[in-house]
TrEMBL record:
Phylogenetic lineage: Bacteria, Pseudomonadati, Pseudomonadota, Gammaproteobacteria, Pseudomonadales
Official protein name in the record: C17 cyclopropane fatty acid synthase CfaB
Residue ranges occupied by any DUF7884 domain in the UniProt entry: 13-78
Taxonomic superkingdom: Bacteria
Keywords from the UniProt entry: Lipid metabolism, Methyltransferase, S-adenosyl-L-methionine, Transferase
Organism for this UniProt entry: Pseudomonas spirodelae
Stored Gene3D superfamilies: Vaccinia Virus protein VP39
Entry coiled-coil feature ranges: none
Similarity-based family: Belongs to the CFA/CMAS family.
Amino acid sequence: MPTYLPSALRDLQLPLRVRLWDGQQLDLGPQPLVTLVVKDPKLMTQLAHPSLDLLGGAYVEGRLALEGSISEAIEVCDALSQALLGDEPARHSVRAAHDKRTDAESIHYHYDLSNDFYALWLDPEMVYSCAYFETGEETLEQAQIAKLRHLCRKLRLQPGDKLLDVGCGWGGLARFAAREYGAQVFGITLSREQLHWARQRVIEQGLGAKVTLELMDYRDLPQDGRFDKVVSVGMFEHVGHANLPLYCQRLFGAVKPAGLVMNHGITAKYTDGRPVARGAGDFIGRYVFPNGELPHLASVTCCLSDAGLEVVDVENLRLHYARTLAFWSTRLEAQLAQAAQMVPEQVLRIWRLYLAGCAYGFSRGWMALHQVLAVKPRADGSHDLPLSRADLYRQ
């Protein structure tokens, strides 16, 4: 047994093997499923306090290697972290500054990575958000189409409706809304790579007369109420806690009276928006989403209400996102050799941990995914929504 392993590791019963740089190893359980290969001797003292940020960062930086299934590695490393740290209280993180330049740089870091890399594991329409599994038996492609349809039904889209898509990504929803519902769509993004790809696909699908996509910050949206409907998918995570009220005000100003606003995004576990404990949120902030901040559902509904929008429907799709991320992770793991030709080795390590780790995190309830539908009431308080949800589920 290695003498320089932290004593705290020796009494654990986990399906984990720890192998050191000199070949010595210790099995922490009778049937190890995962091996942690310690390449940097300096890690030894740190392993007595194995936060998920520490373990993930060491793997990304090449100080630690993993052998075994990435999903099993995530689960075992979480068990290791919890066994030694317990349910460590989450720390309040320093709130990020969110100006136009900083937000554009953060979006560039995450989304301008490589369209070909994303295409390896996303569906053909490049929908990079939580899918909707109506029965649980759907393929990823079927579930993403179901999600786009679910959003359009909630928005009660009609032919000719002017739809604003805030944070349109690769344009999957914009194209679907134009093609299947006859909407006139104006989409905005801060990602140049996404915009280039999405515009090409709009042309290829003959939707140029119905879909306009622009590079634009949400703070520059027109405030003349020109849109019938507004949809925002996976966007408010990038806005920041401090700017969430302004963001909601911009959506209010963009939509006409009686118009609908749909926000679909990841929400925090804690009401004050602090990241999850034991460093998982810190890892994502450091390596995956710089300056990303998750608002709690309470904050989202509060800011929408304060902006003058009335929340009329809320749906939690947390387990749908766990399933979506598991699909993405499995697809990436099946094509690691190809992925390694598209992105640097360190980037690929980040994404392997990120997709598998988030699938695990959503399944455990570390964060959630909420669709929040709001309406901008007319001056007399009226709007045109039906009295029930029955229309959403009619085939």
